Amino acid sequence: MATFIVGDVQACLDPLRRLLDQVGFDPAGDRLWLVGDLVNRGPHSLQTLRFVRGLGSSAATVLGNHDLHLLAVAHGRRKGRLDTLDELLAAPDRDELLDWLRRQPLLHEAPSGAVAMIHAGLPPQWDLATARRCAEEVQAVLRGDGWTELLAQMYGDEPDTWDEGLAGMPRLRFIINCFTRLRFCTAGGRIELHSKGAPGSQPAGLLPWFAVPGRRSAQTTLLFGHWSTLGQVHWPEYRVYGLDTGAVWGARLTALRLEDGTLSSVPSPAYSPIE
């Protein structure tokens, strides 16, 4: 039995199938973890959701920003210029797929508790227990009756600093922004959500979230996506793997075999222009 963690698919189903064939993924015994952003920008959002959902307990995914955006668009949010969601939104099984998607977590852990998967990042103030608790707060709302109100109000960059006293929508928005959008923050933990380049390209005073000294989640191996410009996958000094290698932009789709750290990848067509 092997566990394969795959970077942002973003509706690139053909590369995903080729990658799973290459690594010999067998859903009867292996496990597939996906770091979120299953949909959007690529050509097969509908088919990708059907494929992953169809794997049942053999697959685990976390929610990414594009997955949440899909849910928001399905409930009245205006589509983005580059969105590729129309086929999914018109599908006869859309409601079943969207209901399945909204019930996916923001954080997925190995049974040992030594490895966890997220989509984007964690602020330096959170240890794994805090991250787990914060993820569960958002998940409870998404799985409850008031989930469409959360989707309508989750957009925005404030608040930008963690405070345990945050409450209501500001608290939920901060949690969502960390799990699904974070790349850089200050040493004091103020998050910055607009710089997208490789480490070293950011404005003065910002650090990659995983490189902040004293980060409280540093004892957990973290697997994430969202950051296709990182320039490398494994950062052993920080115990992180950044698995988004830009499949939708015409680079590669990458998988990590958790048991031995083997990395595999396949090339992908450029389905969407880089923003």
Structure description:
The protein has 275 residues and is an alpha/beta fold. The protein has a single domain (3-267), classed as 4-Layer Sandwich (Purple Acid Phosphatase, chain A, domain 2), CATH 3.60.21.10. 29% of the residues lie in helices and 16% in strands. It is built from 8 helices and 13 strands. It has helices spanning 13-23, 45-54, 65-74, 86-89, 94-102, 128-142, 147-153, 168-181; strands at residues 3-6, 31-34, 59-61, 108-109, 115-117, 184-185, 191-192, 207-208, 221-224, 234-235, 240-242, 252-257, 262-267. It has a 5-stranded mixed sheet, covered by helices on one side. The chain has a 5-stranded mixed sheet with strand order 4-5-9-11-10, with no helix packed on it. A 3-stranded antiparallel sheet has the order 7-6-8, with no helix packed on it. Helix 2 (45-54) packs across helix 5. It starts with a strand and ends in an 8-residue tail after the last strand. 43% of the residues are buried.
What is the gist of this entry?
With 275 residues, this protein is α/β, with parallel strands linked by helices. 29% of the residues lie in helices and 16% in strands.
Query: CATH class, please?
Result: Alpha Beta
How does the overall form come out from the CA principal axes? globular
Please report which band the strand proportion falls in: under 5%, 5-15%, 15-25%, 25-35%, 35-45% or over 45%.
15-25%
Give the ordered list of helices and strands.
EHEHEHHHEEHHHEEEEEEEE
Let me know the largest β-sheet: 5 strands, mixed
Outline the low-pLDDT stretches.
none
Per CATH, what is the topology? Answer: Purple Acid Phosphatase, chain A, domain 2
Rg, rounded, reads 17 Å
> Would you report the number of β strands?
13
Report the mean per-residue pLDDT as an integer: 97
The structure class reads: alpha/beta
Arrangement of strands in the largest sheet: 3-2-1-12-13
Termini separation comes to 39 Å
Provide the helix percentage.
Answer: 25-40%
- What's the CATH architecture name? 4-Layer Sandwich
CATH superfamily: Metallo-dependent phosphatases
